[in-house]
Amino acid sequence: MLTTQLVRRPRWPFRTLRSLASRDGADRGSTSIELAGTLPLLLLVILFLGHAVGVVAGVDATTQAARQAARAASQAQSAPAAAADAVPDWMRLDRVTTGPCSDACVRVTASVPVGLPGIVTVSYLPITREATFARHD
To answer: The pTM is what?
Structure first.
């Protein structure tokens, strides 16, 4: 005589999302409210990270502009023109000064825009970098 036993599988790993969601009607819509509350915070974090990347790129661009201006000054060329060529279009070149040293000393100040790019600029963050090259007279 053969007897068959039903093997009962555990329910937990095999529950569907629908059965979990319909367990109690009191939790309906809570995910939407949590998303609506978290979404603005997530957008602010993304905006902050975008500005941090822009500031890092601005520091690098200002450093390169100072080096290009110092190289141009060491070759008796125009330092402000070289710095203006090296600064990207989205940044603002504020000041290029040459120092009173025996070599070609240049200080470049440029500004990174703060705000929504292409929409509104709230303010500018100034970045100053210096570079020195030996003169080739």
So the answer is: 0.70
